[in-house]
Design goal:
Length: 271
């Protein structure tokens, strides 16, 4: 049985992401855990305990309502509600260490997944801090069978093949075409050798290798996705400089992927 962690702050954005995941995995045996983390921004007040109790009550109440809403759409789904006190990052990290989820799903409020990451959001903090596969669902995204998935890559091989399990799982389930896009700028790579190594991770899968020219990586990825009508983008967060180059705050306004493009972020064990 798969273990999928859904993060919620009870917003419409978080609910949409949860529904996206439920529809995506509706034919699988999955245990969904719906987690809400609440925390205090101050301490030392005589009213701390009272406020904490009130926050716990509201968290548990909100989770019950969310589970009811989700099961109204998917009556057979197995959803476990988790109300936890602490910072979101700490609580998600603790869950990952204890339960090793196959996937973490969260929504983003920006017009696009990339744009949202750069606005000081929880989504970006989770991606930077949590070493687990993460699916980020833009607020207006509706689940659609991913006929084509773009995989942005620097063509460097991975420390562990298992890192790619989430994208292989999606590709196998939906018979998706996997379109690798090389976003390498300056470093020399033996392309034939690199492509051969990457293809070995995806036997019997419809693959293609493509290259983006120009310095604006985000715009290049966006254009490639639009030109090829891709439904999802995947990438591995291994090389911090590669990742930070793509998600650098200085190019926030340029990073406008179609809001219907969820992002699957994988983490190599080298991070």
């Amino acid at each position: 049985m798969k273990n999928v962690l859904l993060l919620t702050d009870f917003s419409n954005t978080a609910r949409n992401a949860a529904l996206y995941a439920l529809k995506m995995f509706k034919d699988d045996q999955v245990l969904f855990s719906l987690l809400n983390a609440y925390d205090l921004e101050f301490s030392g007040s005589p009213y701390v305990m009272q406020v904490k109790e009130e926050m716990a009550f509201e968290s548990e109440k909100g989770l019950k309502q969310e589970v009811t809403l989700l099961k109204r759409v998917f009556p057979e789904v197995d959803v476990k509600a988790l109300s936890v006190f602490g910072s979101l990052i700490d609580m998600v990290d603790h869950y990952v260490q204890q339960h090793h989820p196959d996937l973490i799903v969260l929504g983003c409020k920006g017009e696009s997944a990339l744009e949202n990451f750069l606005l000081g959001s929880n989504a970006y903090e989770v991606i930077k801090s949590i070493k687990a596969p993460i699916l980020v669902v833009p607020k207006s995204a509706q689940f659609k069978k991913p006929e084509k998935i773009v995989f942005a890559t620097d063509l460097k091989d991975l420390a562990k093949d298992a890192v790619l399990n989430p994208v292989r799982d999606i590709v196998d389930r939906f018979r998706s075409a996997l379109m690798f896009v090389n976003v390498l700028e300056d470093e020399y790579v033996n392309r034939l050798d690199a492509e051969s190594k990457m293809a070995a991770h995806f036997p019997n899968i419809d693959l293609s290798f493509n290259f983006i020219e120009g310095e604006d990586v985000a715009k290049g990825i966006s254009k490639f996705m639009d030109d090829n009508e891709a439904e999802m983008i995947a990438m591995v967060r291994r090389d911090v400089s590669f990742f930070d180059r793509i998600f650098h705050p200085s190019i926030t306004k340029q990073m406008v992927l179609n809001p219907e493009h969820p992002m699957l972020i994988l983490h190599d064990k080298q991070v």
